[in-house]
Amino acid sequence: MTLELWTTGFIHMISNPQVIMYLAFGIVAGAVIGALPGLSSTMGIAILTPLTFWLDADCGFAMLIGVWNSSVWAGGISAIIINTPGTPGSIASSFDGYKLYKQGRGGLALGVNVIYSVLGGLLSTIALIFFAWPLARFAVTFGPPEYFALALFGLSMMVSVSGNSVMKGLAVGLAGLLLSTVGMDPIMASPRYTLGITYLQSGIQFLPIMIGMFGIGEVLSQIYDYNREQVARENELKKQNMALGRVLPNKQEIKQLALPTFLSGLLSIIIGIIPAAGGDIASIICWGQGKKLSKHGDEYGNGSLEGMAVSTISNNGVLGGALITMLTMGIPGDSVTAILIGSLMMYGMTPGVKMFNEQPDFIVNIMLLMIFANLFILILGLLTAKASAKVLNVKPQSVWVAVSVLCVVGSYALNNSFNDVLIMFAAAILGFFFKRADFPSGPFILGLLLGNMLESNFRRALILSGGNLNIFFKRPVTCILLVVIVFTLMFPSIKRIISERPISTTR
Q1: Alpha carbons 378 and 143: distance in angstroms, whole number
Q2: C-alpha span between 27 and 32 (Å, rounded)
Q3: Quick one: which H or E segment has residue 192?
Q4: Which residues contact 5 (CB under 8 A, 6 or more apart)?
Q5: Nearest 5°: CA angle at 157, between 464 and 303?
Q6: C-alpha to C-alpha distance for 451 and 177, rounded to whole angstroms
Q7: C-alpha pair distances (Å), 379 with each of 60, 100, 376
Q8: Distances (CA, A) of 101 to 111, 131, 315, 423
Q9: What is the DSSP string of 225-256?
């Protein structure tokens, strides 16, 4: 793409107030959608796409790009404030964000959420601009063995999100894996473990489980532990902390966060390129890898600013990678880009090499929209961070009611199905008992999320090889991923042995 094309696109963007207006509208709408538990980016895009039918391509796509970027960032707000991820990609943000708030650093957590979400979005957009073709050609070579290895790599993060008890984490993760087998067999297309219930033929929905376990499950746990006098003292302390709290990280914190967030940003871009791997998978993988490689890994999950930054940069870091796959190959990188492909086709455009050749100006517009959207989010997020943090000072009873209502409404709105609400309540009860018995919820969600991807690609790979397991060791990408998995699992032990080894001194 020539400099002239970029110059023309930039001038067209800033001289068209309608495009800027619809982009701003999408960002505000996305912030509301992302901050409300259950109203995911996919739902927001799906709801607003029909409104773009009456707009031209530039304005319509500007609104959708704004909603997409903003909702992913805003999902971290509710993860920090009420320990309930607003979007699936914000699951890992709740690991440290809520703990930071409880330590009186809620404003800083919200500031980090904004800044590093924007950095992730800009970094992934730069990758989209400069590396679209080579990275897309690499991803298109992925087959079932590579997808299996990627899913296995994601599941290896169970050890990282298991807290103090690895065995409990593995047990819960196995339960999530088993639950993912409910529904239609991915190869034979026959129902499994559905008990004759039609609703279960499509499998256990991930979002109602997430909403119930991290939403109402947390509410039930807080009600169980509620102590009026203690809460009064904590609320007074929170008010003092929030009044004195800061939003922006200082120079020392920025320096400490530079390397881990940069590495997580790069990793999330690669994950985003892989079809069906979104921000939820990227954030958990990057958080787990950050914990293993960090000098302060023991602080992860206990209010680590580094853990918060790593998870937030990965949320938005996948977006550019998903666009690479979508624009160059016409393959949806996640559920949102699947809807965006339909929107492009509505405007008479077909993603792929043909689009790069015939509509290069619109490709440039999309890249510029990603940059403008992240800059707008930075301004909006920093201006409203204090206001968001002050919400923490409301009475816990009000928060419980609001969260419960939003969880019920959000669960029902997913498919307009009361069955999703029942699943959500069942997950809430399960999440409550997990809290009481000190079982981590992260591995369960991870097993449920990656189970189908793991099983279906393992079986497809065996079909391709005639049942020979050597197929997983003959392909370069798969071998590299398997080596990384082994290293990932062994690294904590190696790190502990090295740290415990006595240092010999010579005179």
Answers
A1: 38
A2: 9
A3: strand 191-192
A4: 360, 361, 364
A5: 160
A6: 5
A7: 22, 23, 5
A8: 12, 38, 20, 29
A9: T--HHHHHHHHHHHHHHHHH--SS--HHHHHH
Under 8 Å between Cβ of 234 and 450: no
- Residue by residue, pLDDT tens for the chain (507 residues) are 566 666 776 777 777 788 889 899 889 888 887 776 656 676 677 667 767 777 887 888 888 888 888 888 888 887 877 777 777 777 778 788 888 887 777 778 888 888 898 998 898 888 888 877 666 556 567 788 888 887 787 777 666 556 566 778 788 888 888 988 888 888 888 888 888 888 888 888 777 887 788 778 878 887 887 766 555 655 554 554 454 467 778 888 888 888 888 888 888 888 777 655 566 677 777 887 778 777 777 778 777 888 888 888 888 888 887 788 777 766 665 667 767 776 777 777 777 666 777 777 788 888 888 888 999 999 888 888 767 655 545 566 776 787 788 778 767 876 778 888 898 899 889 989 988 888 877 788 778 877 888 888 899 999 988 888 888 888 888 888 888 788 767 766 666 676 666 544 444
HEC-encoded secondary structure of 320-363 = HHHHHHHHHHCCCCCHHHHHHHHHHHHCCCCCCHHHHHHCHHHH
DSSP string, 380-445: HHHHHHHHHHHGGGS-HHHHHHHHHHHHHHHHHHHHT-HHHHHHHHHHHHHHHHHHHTT--SHHHH
Residue 502: DSSP 8-state = P
Q: At what angle do helices 17-35 and 57-81 cross, to 10 degrees?
A: 30
Tokens of residue 198, six digits: 């039609």
* 286 three-class SS: helix
Rg of the chain on CA atoms, in Å = 23
Instruction: Let me know: does 316 contact 288? Beta carbons within 8 Å.
Output: no
Tell the residue number behind the tokens 């690895």, with chain if given: 166
| Residue 41 near residue 71, CB atoms below 8 Å | yes
